[in-house]
Structure formats: C-alpha cells, structure tokens
Amino acid sequence: MAIDLDAYKKLKERLEELKEEFDKTRGVLESLMQRLREEFSCETLDEAEELLEKLSEKQKEAEEEYKQALQELEEKWGDKLKGVF
Fold first, then answer.
1. Phi, psi values for residue 84, rounded to 5°
2. Per-residue pLDDT averaged across 47-58, rounded?
3. What are the boundaries of each domain within the chain?
C-alpha cells in the first residue's frame, strides 16, 4: 500500500502543528509550575491541591467567625446601630 505525496504532506503538516501546540502547552505548564513554586512553595500539583484545600477550609472558618461576631455585635448593639447594617 503506497501513500500518495499529498497525503504524506498533509500528515507531515498536521504532525508539525501538533508538535507546535505541544511545545506551547509545555511552555505554559512550565510557567505555571514555576509560579506555583515561587508564590506558593508547591513543587507538585498534589501539593497545590492540598494547599488549596487547607486555604479553603481556613476561609470557611473565617467566614463563620465573621458571621458569629457580626451576630454578637448586632445582638449587643443592634438598637444603637439601626440603619448601619
């Protein structure tokens, strides 16, 4: 089975496009991994996911503390703060 020249050229062109896309994607990935290392001290995606989970939990805790403090403030001073909240 012989492959014709046009099919070969198209295949070669597509291969070059895919290689170019791969190289760009690799460059973006390397850049993002460098940013993870520099900004968040994470060497792997697993470490980054663990950090994200910890930070998300801290955010939830902080939101709950804020809500509790606001509720206590409103209970204590609500009549004097009418219209502020």
1. -80, -40
2. 97
3. 26-77
